[in-house]
Amino acid sequence: MPSAATCAVSHRQLLRRFRRSRRGSAALEFALVAPVFFALLFATIEAGTMFLAGQLLETITQDSARMIQTGQAQTASYTQSQFASYVCSQVPALFTCGGISIDVESYPSFSSIVINNPIDSSGNFQGGNMQYNPGGACDIVVVRLFYQWPLFVTGLGWNPSNLAGNKRLLTATAAFRNEPYSGSACATI
Predict the structure, then answer these.
(1) Could you give the CA distance from residue 115 to residue 141 in angstroms, rounded to a whole number?
(2) What is the pLDDT of residue 149?
(3) Hey, which end of the chain has fewer CB within 10 Å, N or C?
(4) Is the pTM of this model over 0.85?
(5) The pLDDT value given to residue 38
């Protein structure tokens, strides 16, 4: 049976050999750095995807607003659901058509435009009062599209959500004067 002194020496030798050995140090360092690296990687990917979605929503808004601005929607007597169908025909796979809220309002002048915040104090989207009033020739119109974008990487102190339930309200707006599609010239203001 080995003595206590022999065991202590063998433990010291084992500890010395362990300190000198560099095998596995890369795996240990990676294990320490990997969680932060992957969290930053996924947060960057999510932020980039969110900005891409916002830009796509802007493009859809501008293209859809052009239908109203040129009078195509008015002369074809588009209803709110028909205009929503037209908007949905432009939606890429990044969005679901049912998730897009559309608000179209007309105003007598640019100075009379009032844009209300669609998010209440509790962080809920107030999408129930969306209107469809494309106006007539030479009217001032504001077209707004909203989409509740889900967020997945919200840890490490980075949380861009502005809605309850880890969602970000993406908003795109187009403000313009309708063209004189009825044939008469617009009065200057």
Answers:
(1) 12
(2) 92
(3) N
(4) no
(5) 87
Give the DSSP letter string of the chain.
---HHHHHHHHHHHHHHHHH--TTHHHHHHHHHHHHHHHHHHHHHHHHHHHHHHHHHHHHHHHHHHHHHTTHHHHTT--HHHHHHHHHTT--TTS-GGGEEEEEEEESSGGG-----SB-TTS-B-GGG--B----TT-EEEEEEEEEEE-----TT-----BTTTEEEEEEEEEEEPP-TTSSPPPP-
User: How many CB atoms neighbour CB 46 within 10 A?
Assistant: 19
DSSP per-residue string spanning 13-32: HHHHHHHH--TTHHHHHHHH
How far is residue 107's CA from residue 113's CA, in Å, rounded to a whole number?
Answer: 6
Residues of the chain falling short of pLDDT 50:
none
- pLDDT, residue 9, reads 62
